[in-house]
Amino acid sequence: MAFDFIEQQLQQRKIDGLYRQSQITQGQQGRYIKVAADHYLNFSSNDYLGLAADPTLIKAWQKGAELYGVGSGGSYLVTGYNQAHADLTEQLKSWLGLEAIALFSSGYSANQAIIKLLLDKNALLLQDKLNHASLMEAGSLAQCKMQRFKHNDSAHLQSLLEKQQNPNSLIISEGVFSMDGDQAPVKELLIQSKQHNSWLMIDDAHGLGVLGKDGQGSVVESGIANSELQIYMATFGKALGVGGAFVAGSQALIDYINNFSKPYTYTTGLPPAMAYTIGCAAQMAEIEQWRRDKMFELVSYFKTLAVQHDIQLGESNTAIQPLIIGDSQKALMVAEQLKALGFWVTAIRPPTVPVNTARLRITLTTSHELQDIKQLIAAISTILSEH
Ligand SMILES: *Cc1c(COP(=O)(O)O)cnc(C)c1O
């Protein structure tokens, strides 16, 4: 039968405890999430600064719609590039110290676009093993050669760079790793890329707004200007609480995207009202330092309590705190037990993470309070001691 792999593979996922489906959430999300009729403390969102349902941003979206309408009406090169997009671009350039920017509707599409655009069959792509699926998938579909270096392992990267003879090579790493919360050694990566005449791209989806002076991200936190990288990419759907993404680099790179990137050219521009809202979110992320201060205070409290309760966490100083369980079924079971106690914590399983490293990916946000963390740690401690 044609396409009978569909049923087979779905069945297999169920057998392996790896089957996935969405849960319908109700209303806004923040400190709590409502699923069906129940409220849970929400420890699964990427809304690190608590902006996704902020009243100021809700008003901004309404005002943006009044000013610019709800849809862009076309692709960026036809009629879809509104003053709202131009204003957002200028604002991001000045906040983040970037030369030029291309907006994308999603980070997934931005990553696919860059890899397809720049890497032909003679090029080499070097990726950290734990890079996001959007980068890995694009790399394996592209014509270039792709090699993966061991996670945050500069020596391994060095050995690959020494062997390479490709005219164009690109190193890509996440700034903050999405499933582990640890950070890339950006300074070392930059030195290595320079030594080997390679380009460096950082995907800072989880660093922008969270790390660095005024939330300028992982690269700035490492003491490097964003403009020193050939490519800096980040999304608006995580700490900024909205959605969409950008790729930044030299003016020539962005002109090249405008002229040659199909995922950039042949897609409808972000709704201008949304671009306007992203601008307001970016301004809040830049100016409202208390959001970062509070989030980091919660992170440090969480880590301290975890040590006191003998709970082993991954090595992360960011909002993403992984509790590695190992077995997928067990991770699911722990997540279910937490749910029964009123905590929404997602079990992340292969293939999103390597085999035998199923985990609870706990995320802390500005919206949490100290007592939420205390309750969560007590619940985890009780559940783990029963296993
Ligand atoms: C979420 C994420 C993306 C994709 O961004 P979207 O805007 O959600 O499509 C890309 N890279 C990393 C590291 C991410 O975490």
UniProtKB/TrEMBL annotation:
Gene3D superfamilies: Aspartate Aminotransferase, domain 1, Type I PLP-dependent aspartate aminotransferase-like (Major domain). Residues 39-380 form the Aminotransferase class I/classII large domain. It comes from the Bacteria. Keywords: Biotin biosynthesis, Pyridoxal phosphate, Transferase. SUPFAM superfamilies: PLP-dependent transferases (SSF53383). Its EC number is 2.3.1.47. The keyword Transferase applies. Its cofactor is pyridoxal 5'-phosphate. It catalyses: 6-carboxyhexanoyl-[ACP] + L-alanine + H(+) = (8S)-8-amino-7-oxononanoate + holo-[ACP] + CO2. It holds the Pfam family Aminotran_1_2. InterPro entries: Aminotrans_II_pyridoxalP_BS, Aminotransferase_I/II_large, AON_synthase_class-II, AONS_Archaea/Proteobacteria, PyrdxlP-dep_Trfase, PyrdxlP-dep_Trfase_major, PyrdxlP-dep_Trfase_small. This is 8-amino-7-ketopelargonate synthase.
